[in-house]
Amino acid sequence: MKKAVIFDLDGVLVHTDRYHYNAWRILTDRLGIDFTQERYDSIRGLSRMDSLERILALSSRQFTQEEKEAMAAEKNEAYLQRVRQMNPEEVEGDVREALKGLREKGLLLAVGSSSKNAKLILERTGLTAAFDAIADGSMVRRAKPDPEVFLKAAALLQVAPAEALVVEDAAAGLRAAKAGGFQAVAFGGDAAGSGLADYEVTRLTELLELA
Ligand code: G6P
Ligand code: MG
């Protein structure tokens, strides 16, 4: 019997993973870096700067810290242009049904995201009030695969890691969950089929049977 469910945001609650990919592509196309969907999958869940480092490692060029910061800011601006257009209709019925059903079962619900834009996305999609706690990239020092953001979410909910499920689309997120002592649920992305999770679901309403 679980007390809480902690959700990753991008690629789990909303399809912002696509917007991240499209925003990175503007940069990689200009730099002549072959950044495929498959390569994006391998960096899912990493922080903005860790993602950029992994992407630039695909180039033969070297970049200064100043150039990297400018590139990260440019990518974020392209990403935010799309995020600012988000609305509640972008949240799938299955997601809303799962959140409602879990709450009715008495579970505490939180978001555990590496993103510094998490609160804006939750506001734009009308999801903020669905959660008892939100832990995001602006609140932690170490990004996934470090467990800090999930431990922060559990602390805000006042539950122990063993009492919570973490739902992730990223292998880095599953590693973070396991390192923190949580049970991990894979949902799409590069999490599905990775062998890193305790459970795997294809719809979030399946969580109603697990939690
Ligand atoms: C999420 C996404 C990553 C993204 C990270 C930072 O974890 O899965 O792809 O790099 O957040 O997002 P941000 O919105 O702060 O750039
Ligand atoms: Mg994700």
Q: What does this protein structure show overall?
A:
This protein is of the alpha/beta class. It has two domains: about 5-15 and about 90-210, Rossmann fold (3-Layer(aba) Sandwich), CATH 3.40.50; about 15-85, Putative phosphatase, domain 2 (DNA polymerase, domain 1, Orthogonal Bundle). The protein has helices at about 15-30, 35-45, 50-55, 65-85, 95-105, 120-125, 150-155, 170-180, 205-210, and strands at about 5, 110, 135, 165-170, 185, 200. It has a six-stranded parallel β-sheet. α1 crosses α4 and α3 crosses α4 (about 65-85). The structure holds 6-O-phosphono-alpha-D-glucopyranose and magnesium ion (MG). 6-O-phosphono-alpha-D-glucopyranose binds near residues 11, 44, 47, 114 and 137. The site of magnesium ion has 10 residues, from loops.
Main sheet overview:
6 strands, parallel
Low-confidence stretches: none
Number of domains: 2
**How many beta-strand runs?**
6
Which percent range fits the helix content?
40-55%
From the spread of the alpha carbons, the general shape counts as globular
The count of helical stretches stands at 9
Oligomeric nature of the chains: single chain
Structural class given helices, strands, pairing? alpha/beta
- What's the end-to-end separation, in Å? 6 Å
Instruction: Compute the CA-based radius of gyration.
Output: 17 Å
- Return the CATH architecture of the largest domain: 3-Layer(aba) Sandwich
- CATH level-1 class of the largest domain: Alpha Beta
CATH-defined topology of the largest domain: Rossmann fold
Mean pLDDT: 97
